[in-house]
């Protein structure tokens, strides 16, 4: 390399190197800093965020994606593809979520309508069955006087009302002691016996509603085989279950019948359940027609021409004397 007289470095003027005009100086001053080629633009941070959140948070992906694209346009940063990808993922996720919510709303509405329809149909059937039972339990059938709320045997002048519950142990004791006496007074025309079989001890039969089932079965017997009404009552108490048990089954209640007509369909069809329960409500709330009592407070309760018998429940002679008006 040749240095000129003025201290600069460059081409020699023509003639300096002989007869070769304009020969370049073979060396130049190297650059002061290294050269690494063109620098790649920086990737926009929000574009990366948009892409990542597109997989987990659609709303955040859409928001950051739009912001990232705006910044990229202004600054020339890289990452536009990632921002667009995040937007696409975000919008697809939002659309899918919206579709899922709409489907869920329609499904819930449809299920609600279906449940309402089923409940309405069930209620309609139940109401229809109850109405049918209520319509059937009117007037008189055999020894059952449905409008008056009792079973009646005998035609005597003295009226004896007997309130019992098939699961009541004291009622069982009363019937065992006095059942034959009352039957004899019915047969000889001394008394008219009106039976009120109550159901308030349903709670003592482990959910089987034994008192209702037994009272209804007694009503079935009175309606179908009126001549066997007192025999069936005696059979109920002779086979009385203990309180706190499930009681007799419907088949066992049917088997107690000694009449010529079958009570099976009447018993299993629960024909007089509602009637028996209504009689119980009427007795417990009152008033009691033609009686000195305002309501029935317990069982057994015996009314003789409306007056309450207060004698011993296991002394048939005391009961007979009270009925005949004789002081023992």
Walk me through what this model shows.
By secondary structure, the protein is of the alpha+beta class. The chain has 2 domains: 40-136, no CATH class; 141-324, Glutaredoxin (3-Layer(aba) Sandwich), CATH 3.40.30.10. The chain contains 10 helices and 7 strands. A 7-stranded mixed β-sheet has the order 1-2-3-5-4-6-7, with helices on both faces. Strand 1 and strand 2 form a beta hairpin. Helix 1 (45-53) runs parallel beside helix 3 (80-136) and helix 4 (169-187) packs antiparallel against helix 6. The chain starts with 44 loop residues before the first helix and ends with a helix. Residues 14-19 and 123-134 have low confidence and may be disordered.
Give keywords.
alpha+beta; Glutaredoxin; seven-stranded mixed β-sheet; 10 helices
Q: Provide the residue-averaged pLDDT.
A: 85
* CATH class bucket of the largest domain: Alpha Beta
Helix content: 40-55%
**CATH homology-level superfamily of the largest domain:** Glutaredoxin
The CATH architecture of the largest domain comes to: 3-Layer(aba) Sandwich
Biggest pleated-sheet summary: 7 strands, mixed
Listing every helix as H and every strand as E from the N terminus to the C terminus, the arrangement reads HHHEEEEHEHHHHHEEH
